[in-house]
Each structure stands twice: as C-alpha cells, then as structure tokens.
Amino acid sequence: MTTISELDWKPHPIFGDRGLSVITFENGYVANVIFEKRVRGGPEPYEVAILRDGELDDTTPIMNGPIADLTEDEANAVLRRISELPAVGEGGKSTGC
C-alpha cells in the first residue's frame, strides 16, 4: 500500500501553497491527497478524498466527503481503508458497498 511518505507531490492547481497527489488503487478507487504546509501550528496538514470518474465519491462506507485536518498516521490509515474496499464494478458502481 502507498503511504504519505511515498507520494509524488505536485503543486495544487488552484491553491499554489498546497501539494496535491493522486493515488489510483488496485481496487479501482482514486484518492486525492492534499498537503498544506503549516507555518504556525493549527489543524493537521492532510486532507483525503475519494474520487470516481473525476468527481467526489461520497458513496463509500469510509467517508461522505473529504476528511481534513489529518496527521500523517491518520491519512495513512484512511488510505489503507480505501485500499481495502471491494473493487469498483462495471459502470463505476462499487461492489459490496
């Protein structure tokens, strides 16, 4: 499973001060991970969202929208849960969810 420390970060196309990485899992799910460098503390720096067909997928049992303010360990746990979801089936529908 891919972890936060292994991601290839690119500048976020809208928010230049943030990093963006996109992970495609073997089960067909795609995760968007955003990293925001924190200068003065505040919320944790990671946000994870699940995408399907380029749009936010709020139909999984993991999340109904992006999960923000995650530590690296918390973000890795979310990525692990996404990797363990049943495979996406025909027509972009998830199977077993």
Structure explained in plain terms:
The protein has 97 residues and is α+β, with helices and mostly antiparallel strands. The chain has one domain. 12% of the residues lie in helices and 30% in strands. The chain has one helix and six strands. Strands 1, 2, 3, 4, 5 and 6 form a six-stranded antiparallel sheet that branches. Strand 4 and strand 5 form a beta hairpin. The radius of gyration is 13 Å and the shape is globular. The two termini are 21 Å apart. The relative contact order is 0.21. The C terminus is likely disordered.
Question: How large is the share of residues in beta strands?
Answer: 25-35%
The coarse silhouette is globular
Q: Helix and strand succession?
A: EEEEEEH
Gyration radius over CA: 13 Å
What's the pLDDT, averaged over the residues? 82
Number of helical stretches of at least 4 residues: 1
Strand runs, count: 6
Class of secondary structure makeup:
alpha+beta
Helix content: 10-25%
Looking at this protein, list some descriptive labels.
97 residues, 12% helix, 6-stranded antiparallel sheet, alpha+beta, 6 strands, 1 helix, disordered C terminus
Give the topology, please.
Layout: E1 10-11, E2 18-24, E3 30-36, E4 46-52, E5 55-56, E6 67-70, H1 72-83
Q: What is the compact description of this entry?
A:
With 97 residues, the protein is of the alpha+beta class. It has one domain.
